[in-house]
Design goal:
69% helix, mainly alpha
Protein backbone atom coordinates (compact mmCIF):
# COMPACT_ATOMS: atom_id res chain seq x y z
CA UNK A 1 0.00 0.00 0.00
CA UNK A 2 1.34 3.40 -0.93
CA UNK A 3 1.61 6.16 1.66
CA UNK A 4 -0.96 8.32 -0.18
CA UNK A 5 -3.46 5.45 -0.07
CA UNK A 6 -2.75 4.92 3.61
CA UNK A 7 -3.23 8.62 4.38
CA UNK A 8 -6.57 8.64 2.58
CA UNK A 9 -7.68 5.63 4.61
CA UNK A 10 -6.49 7.22 7.86
CA UNK A 11 -8.42 10.41 7.11
CA UNK A 12 -11.63 8.34 7.03
CA UNK A 13 -11.06 6.89 10.52
CA UNK A 14 -13.07 8.04 13.50
CA UNK A 15 -11.46 10.39 16.00
CA UNK A 16 -11.02 7.55 18.51
CA UNK A 17 -9.42 5.27 15.92
CA UNK A 18 -7.03 8.05 14.90
CA UNK A 19 -5.95 8.37 18.54
CA UNK A 20 -5.45 4.59 18.71
CA UNK A 21 -3.34 4.78 15.56
CA UNK A 22 -1.22 7.58 17.03
CA UNK A 23 -0.67 5.48 20.15
CA UNK A 24 0.25 2.45 18.07
CA UNK A 25 2.71 4.43 15.95
CA UNK A 26 4.29 6.00 19.02
CA UNK A 27 4.89 2.57 20.55
CA UNK A 28 6.28 1.21 17.28
CA UNK A 29 8.72 4.10 16.83
CA UNK A 30 9.78 3.82 20.47
CA UNK A 31 10.50 0.10 19.98
CA UNK A 32 12.62 0.93 16.93
CA UNK A 33 14.56 3.40 19.08
CA UNK A 34 15.07 0.77 21.78
CA UNK A 35 12.53 2.15 24.25
CA UNK A 36 9.64 0.29 25.80
CA UNK A 37 6.77 2.61 26.59
CA UNK A 38 4.36 -0.17 27.50
CA UNK A 39 4.43 -0.81 31.23
CA UNK A 40 2.77 -3.69 33.05
CA UNK A 41 0.24 -1.74 35.11
CA UNK A 42 -0.70 1.69 36.41
CA UNK A 43 1.32 1.31 39.61
CA UNK A 44 4.42 0.55 37.58
CA UNK A 45 3.71 3.58 35.36
CA UNK A 46 3.32 5.81 38.40
CA UNK A 47 6.57 4.54 39.88
CA UNK A 48 8.40 5.14 36.61
CA UNK A 49 7.01 8.67 36.37
CA UNK A 50 7.95 9.41 39.99
CA UNK A 51 11.50 8.20 39.39
CA UNK A 52 11.72 10.38 36.30
CA UNK A 53 10.44 13.40 38.23
CA UNK A 54 12.92 12.78 41.03
CA UNK A 55 15.79 12.86 38.56
CA UNK A 56 14.55 16.05 36.90
CA UNK A 57 15.64 19.48 38.04
CA UNK A 58 12.77 21.92 38.15
CA UNK A 59 13.42 25.54 37.29
CA UNK A 60 10.81 28.08 38.26
CA UNK A 61 11.06 31.64 37.01
CA UNK A 62 9.19 34.49 38.59
CA UNK A 63 9.02 38.13 37.60
CA UNK A 64 9.49 39.03 41.27
CA UNK A 65 12.68 41.09 41.57
CA UNK A 66 13.33 40.76 37.84
CA UNK A 67 14.42 44.33 37.33
CA UNK A 68 15.87 43.76 33.85
CA UNK A 69 12.55 42.38 32.62
CA UNK A 70 10.66 45.29 34.17
CA UNK A 71 13.04 47.76 32.52
CA UNK A 72 12.67 46.09 29.13
CA UNK A 73 8.88 46.05 29.44
CA UNK A 74 8.90 49.72 30.38
CA UNK A 75 11.03 50.55 27.33
CA UNK A 76 8.70 48.59 25.05
CA UNK A 77 5.62 50.32 26.46
CA UNK A 78 7.24 53.76 26.10
CA UNK A 79 8.21 52.99 22.49
CA UNK A 80 4.69 51.76 21.69
CA UNK A 81 3.14 54.86 23.21
CA UNK A 82 5.47 57.13 21.21
CA UNK A 83 4.63 55.30 17.98
CA UNK A 84 0.95 55.62 18.73
CA UNK A 85 1.21 59.40 19.33
CA UNK A 86 3.51 60.12 16.40
Amino acid sequence: MLLNDLLQTVSKLSHQDKLRLIHFLLLEVAKEEGCNLELADNQEQENALLKQLQSTEAVVWSPYESYEAAQKLSELLTAAQQEGHA
